Amino acid sequence: xxxxxxxxxxxxxxxxxxxxxxxxxxxxxxxxxxxxxxxxxxxxxxxxxxxxxxxxxxxxxxxxxxxxxxxxxxxxxxxxxxxxxxxxxxxxxxxxxxxxxxxxxxxxxxxxxxxxxxxxxxxxxxxxxxxxxxxxxxxxxxxxxxxxxxxxxxxxxxxxxxxxxx
Length: 166
What we know:
Layout: H1 3-19, H2 27-37, H3 40-92, E1 97-99, E2 104-106, H4 136-144
Antiparallel strand pairs: 1-2
């Protein structure tokens, strides 16, 4: 199914409604006529299948991504483990640096770090970041109540397609 075929179907539907204006008001008659005179059922069935195939591929891809993420985490733990072992060996040998054919290993002094659990609510305001974030529910309620907000307005959402296959 390509966009050209869908466009051809839309043109055929518009032509039939223009040719038989009485079907514009009767949804049951219009559905029956379009089913008999066009490929609407075939096209929509094909699109349902394409959508379900895409959904299956999305889920399979996500599962694969989860597997790869777990694998990457295992390798990250292996990297940390090897670095910890190198640090322990250099410490036991009382060495800060060792040059080898494969690479140079050295211990670097890192900057100071905070030790302990940081509880944001227990800190004064000058030591925390305060995030200003719009509350979309309150904004919507304010607009419904007639409050004017610069650059914002309520609008009807477009209809969404619902496909049930089970």
